[in-house]
Write a structure and sequence with these properties.
Elements lengths: L9 E2 L3 E6 L2 E11 L2 E7 L8 E6 L2 E14 L2 E8 L12 H21 L1
Antiparallel strand pairs: 1-3, 2-3, 2-5, 3-4, 4-7, 5-6, 6-7
């Protein structure tokens, strides 16, 4: 059975700087959502649940590593999710995804309130 994603992905390659324990590494995105991304080209060790800082242009934000996959001995890909949401962090219009995400969150809140 196919996995159901909470947020629609947009395939887009954007350069990012990833700060891990004070060291900065260059990487890029593969997929974006308004709450996170899949990043690759990273030549550093990452662990799930680790918080890293991503920089895109002049914007910086903290992201939690959700998953890590070793691509080669020196390269990893990782799924990251924003710790604190920032408007237009990626510099591209993902507003439709943001609206859809807010609608789902509101519906889930309403449904859980009715159960209580």
């Amino acid at each position: 059975m196919a996995e159901q994603r909470k947020n629609k992905r947009t395939k887009m390659v954007l350069p990012v700087k990833v700060s891990i324990s004070g060291a900065t590494h260059l990487a890029h995105t593969f997929d974006l959502t308004y709450v996170g991304a899949r990043i690759g080209g990273l030549h550093a060790e990452l662990k799930a649940d680790q918080v890293v800082s991503l920089q895109r242009g002049s914007k910086k934000a903290n992201f939690r590593v959700v998953w890590v996959q070793q691509i080669s001995p020196n390269e990893v890909q990782a799924g990251v999710q924003a710790v604190d949401m920032q408007s237009n962090f990626w510099g591209v219009d993902l507003s439709e995804q943001e609206k859809e995400g807010r609608n789902v969150e509101a519906l889930m809140s309403l449904m859980s309130a009715k159960k209580a």
